[in-house]
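Risk register update: the risk of archive-format incompatibility is retired. Evidence:
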Amino acid sequence: MKKKLKKLLIPLLAAVLMLGAAAPAQAAVSRDTIDAAARDTAAYLVKAVPKPALGAVGGEWLVLGLARSSITLAPDYLEGYKKSAEAQVKQLKGVLHVRKYSEYARLALALTALGYNPASFGGYNLLLPLADHDKTVWQGINGAIFALLALDSGDYAIPRNKLAATQATRELYIQYILARELTGGGFNLSGAAADPDVTAMALQALAKYQDQTAVAGAIKRALKRLSALQGKDGGFTSWSAGNCESVAQVIVALTELGISPEDSRFVKNGKTLADNLLSFYTKGKGFAHGAGGAANIMASEQAFYALVSMQRYLDGKNSLYRMGEEESADSAKTETTLRLPLKKAGGI
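Archived output:
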């Protein structure tokens, strides 16, 4: 009888264990919490940056997040940025930077989010520099990553750049990124150790090419590496310090790949990515770069668009960077509008 009972219990126990392992992680952060943090952070950023302008901080990333959110702003806030950026482009005669071509990619992303065509802005084609492969990748992997994100954001055709030594193609940028995969998976700006930020950004750029065998393999290895790099607090360490921006980039990477931010591979010690992200948040004061630090605009911008990427994922909408595709019919039904009442003052 004991032997029979044992035979029955062993497969039953195995089945229970298998079910437990396959079960999705329990949500530690509610949708209401995510929405409230997004609204509050948007209010903090708009107050901190009353007049967004061309730039890596207080400019394109802020505009991208706000434009891709469901938050209602005063009409002239984002339009004010567009006019300011246009004036700057004209003043610079279309030359945003002679070396850092990610400047063009970043502006192209913001303009696409706003509904403007970067191929014709202020009298200049801002995608033309990205058609020069060699100059774009002068920055290294970052150049290729942001070029792909910008070009794919609106499904733009790559213009012909007659001055380029090497005419860029999407495939060239993909191969450039893949060639820099590290042993064991993941990516970095330099060195042999995978960096969570760069790895996550590479995944964001490669997300639309998962149908390619080589890309799919690199993505699988990078996800495994990111999971291994995740700490017990649900976050990531970059440059020897846990920080807000790293976990924000991983969240965006997962949503671009169509993976839940609460995927069981990214829950450590019961802590999710959202748990860690919000550990850097203080109500009314935005997000800090490091634990216990003061809030700053850069960290808040990246955390904000990570929150927006989660909202879009949960609502079944296009991901943060997929702006050239039509919204699904169901997304309008599930959309949650977040209204941010702002009075016209200080350029808002």
